[in-house]
């Protein structure tokens, strides 16, 4: 069996190793109109030795925004701002996919502005609070009851995703990953308590998987299935979600996906390894895993590298370790110590805790 340091092909790309940088929201899109910045280009360039970088989540439309200072991919200025980012990664020998995320109900009218309101499968508020502007001190408000997506709204939302995916390719990304995990719009449709619809997009399993499957098909038609991936997180309860019939739900979803997708990305929640195994058996293509079999496996780290050789995954993705170890692949390869990330600098801020983590060679000089 291959190891994590062996090449693998996804779509038309050959990755030099099987260690991916997971999508990591950093909320530093300080360019005009939530555009990418030169600091973001440097951040991703530093991590280009990953087999694949999956970018931080970018909203496919204005109403899809869920946090302050997150980037978009829905207008021309944003597309132009991402070009230096993808160019920097490619010049450093790397590969980068754009992640697209619609927050759905996890937003607020004060955050969105211009009279926009959060849209979701049903009029059920998310649990928790959200920061509603970038100023200091931080102001947080409870999530409101969202407006319900009509079937026409669903068609328009899918079109927004397809347009944003095309924008991502135009901006130089090698492909697109759809964020179907962690409680955002796609997973809201999969949920039994966020999706109370009685039309064809709700009810039983067939209805709850309809939106993600139609979305994947539409984006695949626009940019090609070989440049598209989907990320899911079965059993995630973020923002109060519940997913009844979990195994049937996700196995039905996986069986309905185009076989030609670049990869399927599973963010594994502790206690669901049996479902991970079943999805691995069902999915014939490249299976990317962010592994957390047990609570103490959080965050995923070197203790999970054996999962590729064991056959559970083709590619492993790592999140917070890539924040503090820009040369994570090299550190894994030589068994070097890993730097710990400063969680206080995860979101917003400047270069501190962003581009100032040194590579191993800089540490040992």
Automatic annotation (TrEMBL):
InterPro entries cross-referenced by the UniProt entry:
Aldolase_TIM, OxRdtase_FMN_N, Oye-like
Name the chain's protein.
Alkene reductase
Q: Where is the NADH:flavin oxidoreductase/NADH oxidase N-terminal domain?
A: 4-234
State the species of origin: Amycolatopsis samaneae
Where is the chain membrane-spanning?
none
Give the superkingdom in one word.
Bacteria
- Residue ranges annotated as coiled coil are none
Checking Gene3D superfamilies in the record gives: Aldolase class I
């Amino acid at each position: 069996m291959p190891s994590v340091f062996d090449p693998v092909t996804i779509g038309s790309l050959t990755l030099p190793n099987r260690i991916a940088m997971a999508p990591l929201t950093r909320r530093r899109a300080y360019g005009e109109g939530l555009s990418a910045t030169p600091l973001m280009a440097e951040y991703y360039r530093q991590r280009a030795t990953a087999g694949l970088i999956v970018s931080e989540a970018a909203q496919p439309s204005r109403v899809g925004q869920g946090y302050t200072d997150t980037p978009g991919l829905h207008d021309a200025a944003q597309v132009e701002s991402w070009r230096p980012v993808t160019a920097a990664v490619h010049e450093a020998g790397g590969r980068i996919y754009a992640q697209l995320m619609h927050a759905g109900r996890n937003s607020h009218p004060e955050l969105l502005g211009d009279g926009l309101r959060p849209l979701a499968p049903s009029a059920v508020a998310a649990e928790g609070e959200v920061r509603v502007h970038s100023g200091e001190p931080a102001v947080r408000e409870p999530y409101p009851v969202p407006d319900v997506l009509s079937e026409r709204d669903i068609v328009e939302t899918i079109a927004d995703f397809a347009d944003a995916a095309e924008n991502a390719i135009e901006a130089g990304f090698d492909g697109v990953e759809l964020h179907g995990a962690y409680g955002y719009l796609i997973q809201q449709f999969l949920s039994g308590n966020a999706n109370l619809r009685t039309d064809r997009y709700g009810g039983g399993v067939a209805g709850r998987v309809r939106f993600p499957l139609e979305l994947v098909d539409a984006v695949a038609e626009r940019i090609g299935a070989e440049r598209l991936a989907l990320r899911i997180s079965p059993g995630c309860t973020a923002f109060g979600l519940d997913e009844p019939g979990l195994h049937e739900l996700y196995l039905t979803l996986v069986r309905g996906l185009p076989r030609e997708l670049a990869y399927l990305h599973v963010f594994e929640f502790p206690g669901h390894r049996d479902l991970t195994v079943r999805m691995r058996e069902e999915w014939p293509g490249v299976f990317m895993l962010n592994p957390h079999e047990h609570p103490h496996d959080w965050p995923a780290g070197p203790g999970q590298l054996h999962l590729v050789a064991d056959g559970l995954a083709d590619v492993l993705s790592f999140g917070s370790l890539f924040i503090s170890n820009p040369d994570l692949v090299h550190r894994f390869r030589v068994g070097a110590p890993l730097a710990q990330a400063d969680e206080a600098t995860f979101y917003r801020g400047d270069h501190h805790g962003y581009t100032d983590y040194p590579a191993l060679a800089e540490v040992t000089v």
